[in-house]
Amino acid sequence: MGGRRKVVQKTKSLPCFLIGVLWDCHTQGEVPSDVDQPAKLRLYHCLYTLMEILAKNLNHLSIIKEHTIIRLLTDGLPAWQDSQLFIKDLHFDGVPVRIYLPREPSASKRRGVVFIHGGCGIFGSIRGYERICRYIARKSDSVVVSVGYHLAPEHKYPAQTLECLRATVHFLKTADTHGVDPARIIVCGDSVGGSFTATVCQELGHRTDIPKIRAQVLIYPFLQALNFNLPSHQKNAAVAFLPREHTVHFILKYLNKDCSLKEPILAGSHVPESINLKYKKWINPDLIPDKFKLGYKPPLPTLFLPHVHEEVQELFEPWMSPLLAEDAVVCGLPDTCIVTCEHDVLRDEGLLYKKRLEDNNVRVTWHHVENGFHAALGFFGYGIFSFPSSSTIMNHAVDFIKGY
């Protein structure tokens, strides 16, 4: 009898557990009423939360690493064959890439697009961005190179940035062999892929031994790790897929740091006053247009913690925080398209970089997706399972690319 009672209790625990998780999704994961298709976003957020809990438990039991499970989810479903494109896997200077070439003959050399995927440097893959890269190649009649940089934590920072640089330089040097005009190469990326894109363009801007990058496309990019209390951090602190706390958690995971540093970093305790003063001219809520600051409350002063600062020195490098690059670097950047989303914790980083570029006479095209959210692009190409904002973001990028 006792044994039977235990079985019944265990049987009841599963639905109770699921109800608890769904309740957590409802109460903790914020889905604004004016976001794109809120009911669908709520469902996807709940499924993602379930996957996260499963991943954490399996990791705790030493069965499989947490990031491995989430990678399976973010890889998406395989795409069908595409009759309009030649698709082949290559290595550019040792870096895995997939190249998409339109089958239709061209009278002249085509433009090239280097695409660098997002995923916090921990997730994401060539396969996960297959539909996006195919669409860019077809709609803009471009040769697209998708960079399959190796992921953290297996490959430590800054391996990801270095591989993106090597692949881009290789393509710039060998463009002719792929039927590409080396003077018409654009680099494009979303989220941390936007960060890598910004870094690649900063690093190569003043080089004279290779062709110049013609333009860059930054889709809701991550651009700084000094201030996590900007207006968009407050407004979208709990919005689905990339809450404010998750942002810092993933940064620490990417850098292979102790995640107990998350709270002091969120508070700003990792930044000494001297650095705050130095970069206030570039990272400052006062630089954000007023219409994006409704309800914003400046944070209270926080205590500087030297031991936290010492642990996260990488956050103050332009390779991690491209917004910190000096004006001498920024003024050499190519034409830029920035796409921001209203319901994105990283919104203001795009706005601040837009201002920096314009202040340095760099030509900027800016699109703001009022109902968009972080990671919306990742749903592109899945038909009824996608979001209208996914297509809006994609088409803004393609229309810009077609102008070059």
UniProtKB/TrEMBL annotation:
The active site is at residues 191, 344, 374. It comes from the Eukaryota. The keyword Iron does not apply. Residues 113-265, 314-376 form the Alpha/beta hydrolase fold-3 domain. Keywords: Hydrolase. Signal peptide: none annotated. One of its GO terms (cellular component) is membrane. Transmembrane segments: none annotated. The keyword Lyase does not apply. GO terms for molecular function: carboxylic ester hydrolase activity. Belongs to the 'GDXG' lipolytic enzyme family. This is Arylacetamide deacetylase-like 4. The lineage of its organism: Eukaryota, Metazoa, Chordata, Craniata, Vertebrata. The gene is LOC103820947.
